[in-house]
Specification:
The structure is a single chain. The longest helix is centred in the last third of the chain and has 33 residues. Helix content is 44%, strand content 17%. With 275 residues, the protein is an alpha+beta fold. It is elongated, with a radius of gyration of 21 Å. It folds into 2 domains: 135 residues, GAF domain (Beta-Lactamase, 2-Layer Sandwich); 127 residues, no CATH class.
Length: 275
């Protein structure tokens, strides 16, 4: 079951990319328990299908997918793996594609899918990109479990120090902007790339930015505690310190995090001590 809040810019970007990739009426993120399936994020419209809707797990296409059915079908009514799925008749679905969303230990907690009332064939290479987009969602789910360090009576601990959607959106946007992404960020897609190639590059950019976001938010949490600053001001101070020195925010954030256990890590004066 997906317990994290999926109304985050990274998840929205991954879902929008999935919708454009599969070309179906609806793309969605589903969450599963042993008994239920729920539509936790929905992009697009299909009569009767709404975000937050809960079905018996056995009534869903995703239950069949996870039981070994093919990743996609363009004619569910005649496909032995999907013909008897109650959701097919309930929503008039002809086409389906889905990939699992995993927790870090490999447990399946949800799915990233597309459905359509018409016949839409999904090539194998598109399913591969969809799997990468599911990885972006997986990274967000894991990041939300523990995104920052905080000071307790027992010392520094990993935990949720603040819950500020605007702050996380600002961090992600900054990392995706020119000149502020991690060094390993891939090149922007070229004008002559195919749609799938362009989406693959976009997925890679999201993955790198999401990984960098965790470190940046850890640094923001440390600076907030260290200098008694609101998270937004801590982020602005980190960003200003990085850019005034020609450094990447991501790299300087790693140094701030490392300084928790090693006071000898050389930090800019404005990030080193209490204010």
């Amino acid at each position: 079951m997906i317990s994290a809040d999926l109304h985050h810019p990274a998840v929205s970007a991954a879902l929008e990319a999935a919708a454009g990739l599969v070309g179906m009426e609806v793309a969605f993120v589903g969450s599963l328990t042993d008994d239920e399936f729920s539509f936790v994020r929905v992009h697009g419209e299909l009569p009767g299908l709404t975000e937050g809707m809960v079905l018996p797990r056995a009534d869903s296409f995703c239950h069949q997918l996870l039981a070994g059915a093919p990743s996609s079908t363009a004619d569910a009514a005649t496909d032995p793996a999907y013909a008897d799925v109650p959701a097919r008749a309930a929503f008039g679905i002809t086409s389906y594609v889905g990939v699992p969303v995993h927790r870090h230990d490999g447990t399946v907690i949800g799915t990233l899918c597309g459905v359509d009332r018409g016949s839409v064939k999904v090539p194998a290479e598109v399913v591969q990109v969809l799997t990468a987009l599911a990885g972006v969602i997986e990274a967000h789910v894991e990041a939300d479990a523990a995104v920052v360090l905080r000071r307790t009576s027992q010392g520094w601990r990993v935990g949720n120090h603040y819950d500020d959607d605007l702050m996380t959106a600002m961090v992600l946007a900054d990392l995706l902007s020119d000149g502020a992404a991690p060094a390993a960020r891939p090149a922007r897609p070229g004008e002559n790339d195919s749609e799938v190639e362009r989406l693959q590059v976009a997925v890679s950019q999201l993955e790198h930015a999401l990984a960098a976001r965790v470190v940046v938010e850890q640094a923001i949490g440390i600076l907030s505690e260290r200098q008694h600053l609101p998270a937004r001001l801590a982020f602005e101070r980190l960003r200003k310190a990085a850019r005034s020195r020609g450094r990447k925010v991501h790299d300087l954030a790693r140094m701030v995090v490392a300084s928790v256990n090693d006071p000898a890590v050389p930090l800019p004066p404005e990030l080193a001590g209490r204010r």
